[in-house]
Amino acid sequence: MTGQKAAKQLEQLAQQIDHHEERYRAGEPEISDAAFDEIWDSYRQLADELGVDARQRVDARPGADHSDGFVTVEHRIPMLSLEKLSPNRRDSHGELVSISDQLDAWYLRRRKDLDLAEDAALELVVEPKIDGISASLLYEKGRLVRAVTRGDGKKGDDITRQVRASGAVPERLGKRGNFEIRGELYWPRSAFGAYNEKLRASGDKTIVNPRNGCAGMMKRKDPSGLGDVGIAAFLYQVAWAEGIQLPETQSGVLDWLAELGAPVYSDEFLRAGNADAAFEYCEGYHERRLTLEFDIDGMVIKIDDLSCYDRLGGTGHHPHWGVAYKFPPEQKPTKLLGVSVQVGKSGKLTPVAELEPVFVGGTQVSRASLHNFVELERKDVRIKDTVLVEKAGEIIPQVVAVVPELRPKGTCRIKRPADCPTCATAVVEEDIFIYCPNPECPDQVRERLRHFASRIAMDIEGFGAVLVDQVVSALDVSRPDQLFSLTTEQLSGLERMGKKSADNAMAGLAAAKERGLSKVLTGLSIRHVGTSMAEDLATHFEAATALLSFAERYCDGDDDAVQLVAPDKSTDRGVIEGLARKSADSIFAELNSAQLRGIFEGLRAAGVRLDVLESQLVSVEGVDGKTFVLTGTLPTLKRTDAGDRIKKAGGKVSGSVSKKTDFLVAGQDAGSKLAKAEKLGVNVLDESTLLKMLGD
Ligand code: IVH
Asked: Residue 221 falls within a domain, yes or no?
């Protein structure tokens, strides 16, 4: 491969990673974790070969999962990922390297890093890798005081109330010292099944899998009732401690935690004398995992002696003291009968494999995603090929690879479509994707309306995909603003729609009018505008009128407007958070189109709020840019609400006091944080002073 071609391929892989991370964060993953890992591994391998600088690599940043309405807490010690042993790793001659060879190589590297003599022991601990959501739990003098999600690894969301209400971890652990424990929250299979059964019985949508379900439960704003759903935890690490003597080994920590009464599953971890024993234990779990009460997606192999950890260090992405062994998801061969093309909400054309039905991952599969045409060409998938199909969890099945030995004679490469299969408009290519540029394409219209009404956008209750399809086909609705002119009579006249459902949908529409600009922008299916870009645009412009007039100036080439987005060639990024020049060209062109202007006009006329909700407004002088820490019980506000108010005014909320803290807001029973703030000379406020600062 030429250097130029390799660089282009690396860029495409990075774009795929960005895209799938965004989908994952939006709660709508398009591919399985295993498929994502494969893209990730290809990226890592190519980036290594090209010697890409660590700071420019996408694998140097941990993923993010911040949710609105949760207070952000900075982790005292970052929550990193683990390096993975990958089934797809190849050596410099292109030969696949087996997992056991990779583990041997990892073990030897660590021995070398530690300067160990050939006959010196280096014990390992092997634990199941629970497929849940990781959390960091702070215990002060034996009491649980805070629980935080992993977030982007540096800061996460405060889920203390949710974790407490769930009863997944002990409220008290030991009596002395302060310590931060890391672990995994998960939903045991039986409890998850029972919950889904209830949903099914009441005609509600069931939850896709226990991990998504657990994440959803922990992001419930109102945690009441969480104690009944059966969320559990597996605690495996003490990240930080003061005032107590910790054991010197990982196995000792697990025993210690178990003695204190923490859930650690003593039966499931092993002390192994070398890499071979660790590998054998992992292999045994291919069968054993099926009998467990919880989903595991692999095993974690850790060095037992904790005193080695600092010496071994790590990268910004993972520590060197541990490594993850991942289970391969089930794969089955089947025949590729044809490739159809689906048109998405923004006109993206996705190739879909039409397969000879095959039973894989617990269900019959006859269609599978081929993701995009770059991916399809990379795998060189051809009609009549035998392909391997994989279905991890309950996510969309996908074609993993072709079995080249079984290719019949006379096959030919699949051509990229030149025209949209639905409306025959000539397609356009952008990055790794192909688009139908016709906004009136019937498939796009339907998908856009479904998206507009969906939970991540306007969250129109009572307006599911089926009703959207009905209003498109029976009532000729083609634009989101037209939804707001529908009447109860029209809706109740639709097939299988009673008066009650129609009333519900109408109430859903009325409530959705109040969502504010960022949700409207998320819902309009503007290319490159996902949830976070929509928030960045809404925060910057505050109202649709300002945004649209800026779009017009930008498209006219107005110097000031262009400067605002890209003041400097070297950074290619201006003052609008998250917005780079290349996406700006496309976003503002779309916002400036007659189609989008018409929709905004229609939404305005229907009474939909097109400004940033007051509660979302930023920048209160004196608070903006300042870092606050909240401690103790405040007289009127809950700490989470006080944190929300501070964040909305442009301030930051951190979980721990440091020299960077500007203000400590202290309530009743403020403990060690107050003492530390006083020691560091940090300003201490009470609630009423905070409220004054916030303008109350
Ligand atoms: S140790 C530096 N042990 O797997 C992170 N992690 O891919 C060290 N996980 O973020 C974590 N079970 O959420 C560790 N027994 C276990 C685990 C475990 C599940 C998760 C955890 C972590 C991810 C790393």
From this structure: yes
Residue partners of 325: CB distance under 8 A and separation at least 6: 85, 99, 103, 129, 279, 282, 298, 299, 300, 301
CATH number assigned to the domain comprising residue 402: 2.40.50.140
Answer with the one of 605, 638, 659 that is the final residue of a domain.
605
Q: How many domains does the chain have?
A: 6
Query: Are residue 258 and residue 353 in the same domain, yes or no?
Result: no
Verify that 489 and 537 share a domain, yes or no. Answer: no
| Amino acid (1-letter code) at residue 581 | R
Cα-based distances in Å from 478 to 42, 79, 446, 466, 515 = 41, 45, 7, 15, 21
Flag whether 11 is in a domain: yes
Catalytic residue among 5, 8, 84, 129: 129
Instruction: Report which ligand 1 atom has the smallest distance to the Cα of 318.
Output: 2
Residues 165, 292, single domain; the answer is: yes
CATH code of 19's domain: 1.10.287
In a domain, 70, yes or no: no
541 ligand 1 Cβ < 6 A: no
Question: Which residue minimizes the CA distance to atom 18 of ligand 1?
Answer: 129
Q: Is 325 in the pocket of ligand 1 (CB under 6 A)?
A: no
| Residue 107 near residue 274 (C-beta atoms within 8 A) | yes
Average pLDDT, stretch 676-687? 88
Cβ of 236 closer than 6 Å to ligand 1, yes or no, is: yes
Q: Is 129 a catalytic residue?
A: yes
Q: Do residues 530 and 401 both lie within one domain?
A: no
Say how many Å lie between the CA of residue 245 and the centre of ligand 1: 23
CB atoms within 10 A of CB 19: 20
Q: Which domain holds residue 44?
A: 1-61
- Any domain includes 311: yes
Do 199 and 295 lie in one domain? The reply is: yes
Distances (CA, A) of 274 to 86, 106, 120, 153: 20, 11, 11, 30
Indicate the residue among 276, 294, 326 that finishes a domain.
326
Q: Within this chain, do residues 527 and 566 fall inside the same structural domain, yes or no? A: yes
In sequence order, what E strands does 112-223 have? 124-130, 133-140, 143-149, 155-157, 178-186
Mutational test site, ligand 1, from 59, 65, 149, 236, max ligand atoms within 8 Å of CB: 236
Task: Compute, in angstroms, the gap from residue 289 CA to the centroid of ligand 1.
Answer: 17
User: What distance in Å separates the CA atoms of residue 278 and residue 280, rounded to the nearest whole number?
Assistant: 6
Cα(130) to ligand 1 centroid in Å equals 8
Q: What is the CATH number of the domain that holds 449?
A: 1.10.150.20
- Is pLDDT of 63 > 50? no
What is d(CA 280, CA 271) in angstroms, rounded to the nearest whole number? 12
Q: Residue 366: pLDDT above 50?
A: yes
Same-domain status, 293 and 369: no
CB within 8 Å of 186: residues ≥ 6 apart: 130, 131, 132, 133, 210, 211, 214, 231, 232, 233, 234, 294, 295
Q: Is the pTM of this model over 0.70?
A: no
What is the per-residue pLDDT for 587? 94
Asked whether 390 and 397 are in contact (CB, 8 A), the reply is yes
Query: What's the CA-to-centroid distance between 250 and ligand 1, angstroms?
Result: 13
pLDDT in tens, 519-569: 999 999 998 888 778 887 888 898 999 999 999 999 999 988 888 887 665
Helices (H), 289-372: 309-312
